[in-house]
Input
Amino acid sequence: MAVTSKGQRTRDGLVAAAAKLMHERGMAATALGDVLRASGAGKSQLYQHFDSKDALCAAVLEHQLAVVLRAQPSLADDSCADLGQWRADLLTANERAGFGGCPLGSFAGQVSEIEPLRLLYADLFARWQTAIAGLVARAQQAGQVPADRDPEETALILLGAMQGGTALSHIHRDPRPLISALDAAFRAIGVG
Output
């Protein structure tokens, strides 16, 4: 069945409302009734788009990756070979979010008991890592990253530093942990 533009707006509204609530409260603490109230949608509309809360949670995770990638435009810009621009994207996004934690990373530990969600979550992080690896490869071609660095491994190092730094920035409501973590990762991969 084709989804109308009105139906797509309803679905998008449900996902956006659920994402906000689940990011703030956690998935388990967000009831479907809360999502309905926040989105203004009806119960039949919810079940027209999602057959279960797990299906809604999966859509929220996909939505959160899209939020993350929109906040890091240097990853999708094939002309960008500057890891410093990506660092600036991260710091700006972290500050704009009021040091509220990573939109995707904040769900760590919440999906481990539901295997389809855990697998999706792992896939989303793999997609993010691949996007970072693409930037690393472009930076290598530009001479910014040592040629002997593996882009996927380097992306994993950068993603790990970013996740840890973002979590600590959230806890302290201070950008310095993220700055320190990214700067240490850059030094570790040979970017000065």
About this structure: The two ends are 53 Å apart (CA to CA). The chain has two domains: 1-51, 65-188. The domain at 1-51 is CATH 1.10.10.60 (Arc Repressor Mutant, subunit A). The first helix runs from residue 5 to 25.
